[in-house]
Here is the input.
Amino acid sequence: MMIAAYFLRHQIIVIFDKLSEIYDSYQNDDTFHSVVRVNEQSEWLWKMYFIFVLGGFVVNSLLLVLISILYCWFVNGYLDVTSFHRTYKTVLPWDQETLMGFGFATCFDLFGADSYFISNGSLLLLFISMCLHHEAFLKRFQQEMSKFDHTLENTKHRDILCKLVRFHIITKEWFLQSADTYRHFVLVQLISSVIFLACIVFQLDLQSKHPSVNLVLMLFGVFVSGTNLFVYCFFGKLATESYTKIADCLYEANWREVSIDLQKYIIVMIQNAQRPLYYHGFGIAVLNLETFCGLLQKVATFYMAFKTFTE
Here is the structure.
């Protein structure tokens, strides 16, 4: 995931630049406040993630190490590095049974875990923000169509419709651009989540015969990975529905009462919005709840395969 993010960093910057262009073009409109609110919510999510999730993980890991050191000192009367807690028991090219070696190993583990949380969390939060923006774009579109319905003058109809056409074109381009960039992350995320969940469930089955503290960590891993997968699929479906609802919004408007010239534009927009757009993994898997259920079935299939091979 981190490697994909590094190679696609320029495309991610383009997504931000395109969104900034949308803000610059419509920020003075009275119907754009719903989009601005989403931006504020997204900033809040980023702050909460880095403060509580990332910071909480570091504090929790260090506390567990400190507790294990104090416990070893009070029980044994001396420090036994082999009894100290390590969240990730990685194999490293130095002696980890000395205090200095253990300290370096702990720092390495924290650095690796934080790098994963930063890259994976940033991509997930960016994806959530994009999907929430699609929903906000729909709300703005509905508000503009409400103006269209309550306007009697043909000139104002034309002005509102021109704004809607431009807004629809630029938001559709942003959707296609973001979907094209995220197809790499989506495919990697889906494949890695299915493999990880199948392996961890298999490990849980083995550990259930000999319960230990690792059982709790594995259950937490299943929860985090499963939630991560669900969030991608849920918000992917939200983005698709937000775009396709534009067609319903147009169709339910009083467009039949305006001039024939304007009706043609609306009909073209309805036809355009009826073609659904998706966030997907190279067209192999579309992000929606049906895909989420299918992936859980794949996890169960892989788990049964692992169990069959080991019996």
Summary: The mean pLDDT is 86. The chain has eight helices and no strands. Residues 2-310 form one domain. Helices lie at 2-7, 9-26, 33-76, 99-149, 154-207, 213-251, 260-273, 289-310.
